[in-house]
Amino acid sequence: MKFEKRRAEWRLGRWTAKRVVAACLNLPDRREVLARIEIRSAPSGAPKVQVLNKPAPIAISLSHRLGTAVCAAAPECRALGCDLETFEPGIEAFIPDYCTVEERALVAGARTTDRLRLWALLWSAKESGLKALETGLQTDPRCATVSLVQAPSRLREEAPTSSSHAFSGLNEWCQLQVAVRGRVFVGWWKQEGKFLRTMVADPPPFQPIPLVSPPFLVKTLSFPVNPSASAGIFVDSK
Questions:
Q1: For domain 86-200, which CATH number applies: 3.40.50, 3.90.470, 3.80.10, 2.30.31?
Q2: Closest CA to 41 of 3, 81, 14
Q3: What is the pTM of this model?
Q4: C-beta separation of 49 from 58 below 8 A
């Protein structure tokens, strides 16, 4: 069952990526067109796009979690990484081991109700940074240092509690950066429901733009999928 679930999410990620590539390249969102788009893996494991067996002028990054997938796309020659995470109880038992002293201090200074989500945010940002570096978790996450450029004002204990949304970043993009192995990737993060999205790029990107694709007939797919369970974002550099 676990293997089937992982395979379904992997296929959902590829399907999402193909639709994002089609939208970016102004290709029709039809099954026969998507079949010509290939998402291959570089030796590093990073996804690379080919259309009709030729490299496409686009960079992508993929992530999937709990039946939901996201794909970030940017012009080629960009270092790009994205990640999708949830903030589930239990993550606080292992994520701190992969955080720096400064990152742990950031969480310690946050409101108690926000700490679980902040741990998830730090982990997600590290994942995005390591994907942009094209090493993934082959690089120790402790080598990646996350800074929240737009400091979430409501993450501190002394912050006002009148707002119903105590966690800054809810349904809006906020800036962050990830420093790893002498490089600094600038990016964005956002919370939507139970999910946290992060993305980073080099050169520094503008705020991500949601990609809107035309409706796709789910019955044409060879596996079950919820059309709302995939999303694409396009990022360009300053």
A1: 3.90.470
A2: 14
A3: 0.82
A4: yes
- Single-letter amino acid code for the residue at 183: R
Distance CA 237, CA 206 (A): 6
Q: Is 70 exposed, middle or buried (0-12, 13-18, 19+ CB in 10 A)?
A: buried
**What are the tens digits of pLDDT across the range 5-44?**
778 888 888 999 999 999 889 898 888 999 999 999 988 8
- Burial level of 192, CB count in 10 A (0-12/13-18/19+)? middle
Q: Which of 190, 202, 231 is nearest to 62 (CA)?
A: 231
Domain boundaries, the chain: 1-78+205-238, 86-200
Residues 119, 97 contacting (CB under 8 angstroms): no
